[in-house]
Task: inverse folding
């Protein structure tokens, strides 16, 4: 089947952090941002894809019709998609598939989350429901705990130290300082990470991304529609999804995420590129160890060398491969339903000259990787500037 | 014992076995793959014909964390370990709760552990 060429036409985000507005308000704010950035009218949107996990915590599920009604297009069909922390990229993928298949010319893809008002204890507990609860959450494992178990396996298996992992946090905070919408905009040092409170050993507070509120939105359309509206668009040239055993105990190796490898292989194949062609990547660094594992699973570094590469500065802004120029989940923040869409907003801004001080020089190809839970589900997308 | 095609949800039986210190597994009659009893189709060959197998709940620590910021319900139990262990006989991995572990020195990787029960903390482990 001949596919439509699919483009990201505009992007908008709220600030990430502790927000006072309700989930329906921030969802609307990001959506309006994307619509205005794209230079389109709401009535040109043919479908809405909303990604969200814990709307119930802010007394609003079925967010699609609420947002569509407030955009003046209540007749427009919409749906909500939940895939834990990977909800945004999965929703983006479904939107991509529908535009690629020719069902719609233009759609709205908005990710959103509002959890900080529930407090750390309850947020930690809610998030544990994203694990394979019978074996993990029920037995007292939080998400920091699950990734800490992966970190311990990584440190045991490879020549890497807790300081190497800390260097990921330091780098992402450096980038986040340059991002006006980031949640944690402050420089930190290796010592700050090493001296922060242990959350789940060997991970410390500064190895962990924050709980954030926030919403991000993009307009996805076919190329004909894009050309008619703006010169500022980027092409989606690769899309892949994959799965892993839901529980860590079901995986032969604890230092790799199978779904990332499957999704990346599919996305690279569709795009006709290899990892070497990628200029920058927004990856899922919910914990420092996750970025190290991602950077290996995506093919940027050999297995077991990602931590050393991070320590040596290869993943810094305008290093050999810029990873998380936005600041990543670690510094930009992690409103879990929004994160996957927020990564696409960053790539759109990078490839259309809208990313200011954090711009990756001469970038042509950007990648996003966003997973759910400990990588039980994952989507990878590849984008090219026009 | 199941009759060729196993019960769809074997969690009650799995929990009963864990309370007795064992793991209820299923051995695929077609390809001999051994899987936890909470699985319904074989991941290797797709068959759903199994024989129940009781595995002894002893093994070694593969990896773990020590939880100091616990989820709700575990506040009084911290610091405790959440452990992925590999069973001695089959290489099957299961995970569970292991109490009273304050520092990593208390639980080196490959420490022998055993299943001692199942309660509101899921599978409960102890050091051997």
Result:
């Amino acid at each position: 089947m001949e596919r439509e060429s699919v483009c990201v036409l505009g992007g908008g985000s709220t600030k990430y952090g502790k927000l006072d507005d309700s989930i329906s308000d921030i969802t609307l704010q990001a959506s309006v941002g994307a619509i205005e950035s794209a230079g389109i009218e709401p009535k040109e949107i043919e479908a809405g894809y909303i990604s969200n996990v814990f709307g119930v915590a802010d007394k609003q599920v079925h967010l699609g019709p609420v947002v569509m009604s407030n955009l003046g297009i209540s007749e427009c069909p919409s749906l909500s998609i939940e895939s834990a922390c990977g909800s945004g990229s999965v929703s983006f993928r479904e939107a991509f598939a529908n535009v690629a298949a020719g069902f719609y010319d233009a759609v709205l893809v908005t990710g959103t989350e509002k959890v900080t008002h529930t407090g750390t204890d309850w947020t930690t507990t809610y998030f544990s429901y994203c694990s394979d609860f019978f074996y993990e959450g029920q037995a007292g494992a939080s998400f920091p705990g699950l990734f800490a178990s992966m970190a311990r396996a990584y440190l045991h298996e490879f020549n890497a130290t807790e300081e190497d992992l800390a260097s990921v946090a330091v780098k992402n905070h450096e980038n986040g300082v340059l991002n006006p919408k980031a949640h944690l905009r402050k420089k930190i040092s290796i010592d700050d990470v090493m001296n922060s409170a242990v959350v789940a050993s060997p991970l410390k507070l500064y190895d962990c991304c924050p709980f954030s509120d926030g919403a991000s939105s993009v307009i996805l359309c076919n190329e004909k529609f894009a050309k008619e509206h703006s010169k500022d668009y980027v092409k989606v040239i690769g899309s892949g999804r994959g799965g892993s055993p839901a529980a860590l105990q079901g995986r032969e190796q604890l230092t790799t995420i199978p779904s990332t490898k499957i999704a990346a292989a599919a996305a690279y194949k569709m795009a006709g590129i290899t990892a070497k062609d990628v200029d920058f990547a927004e990856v899922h660094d919910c914990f420092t160890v996750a970025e190290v594992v991602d950077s290996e699973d995506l093919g940027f570094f050999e297995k077991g060398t990602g931590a050393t590469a991070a320590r040596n500065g290869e993943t810094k802004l305008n290093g050999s491969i810029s990873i998380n120029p936005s600041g990543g989940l670690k510094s930009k923040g992690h409103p879990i339903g929004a994160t996957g869409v927020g990564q696409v907003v960053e790539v759109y801004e990078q490839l259309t000259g809208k990313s200011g001080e954090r711009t990756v020089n001469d970038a042509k190809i950007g990648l996003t990787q966003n997973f759910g839970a400990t990588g039980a589900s994952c989507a990878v997308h590849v984008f090219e500037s026009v | 014992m199941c009759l060729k095609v196993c019960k769809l949800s074997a969690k009650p039986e799995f929990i009963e076995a864990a309370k007795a210190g064992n793991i209820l597994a299923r051995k695929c009659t077609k390809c001999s793959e051994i899987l936890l009893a909470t699985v319904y189709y074989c991941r290797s060959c797709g068959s759903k014909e199994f024989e129940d197998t009781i595995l002894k709940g002893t093994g070694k620590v593969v990896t773990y964390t020590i939880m100091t910021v616990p989820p709700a319900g575990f506040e009084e139990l911290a610091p405790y370990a959440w452990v992925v262990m590999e069973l001695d006989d089959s290489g099957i991995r299961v995970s569970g709760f292991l109490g009273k572990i304050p520092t990593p020195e208390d639980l080196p990787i490959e420490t022998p552990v055993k299943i001692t029960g199942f309660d509101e903390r899921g599978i409960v482990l102890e050091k051997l």
Remarks:
- The longest strand of chain A covers residues 234-243.
